[in-house]
Design a protein that fits this description.
Length: about 200
Amino acid sequence: MKRYSMRFYNMILALGIFLITAGFVMFILSPGGTDSLFMTAWPVVAMVLGAVFLYFTLSFTHNSFHFFLGIFCALSGIFFGLVTSGVIPNTLHEWWPASVVFASLALLASGLYKAHKLRIAYAFPAATLLLLGIVFLLFSFRVIPGSFKSFVLTFIPFFIIISGAFMVVLFLLQRKYNQFYIDEEETEEIDEDDEELFNKGL
């Protein structure tokens, strides 16, 4: 069976990402959308950036933060592009909290990409962002009556207490299941620093 080089598969990946991005860009730039050049352009730029980050992450860097940026930019660009083109009803003024939801999904995906399993260190902040995004959307679409500012001022002490409690629980769970870890490169750096301090002490 013939084997192909990594360069060949990278080209396939690049072509696939390019075709997906090009398709969404053509769809967003088609007639019938918004007349504002800026409102049309920025989702396209976000999609292109997302495609670039995803390609270089999957092919070369394998960095979870770059993967996060790729997923976040791609999801935001596609969704808000559909909003500005009129496919999704309502305006960006109502839909802006969706970016918080996309950040939650991107964080969860980057955690799965890095550890190949669901980790508390990624799942907890992702769930927090998801909850905040949903609350913001409810206020943005007037599902919850009243001012968001007054809501925040009233309930912010409870949010602080709950956040602190979750952080304590997170610490205890991480320690219980031995999920604290240091990369090998970081360990080598720590050992070198300790050795240097020991020599200075002598």
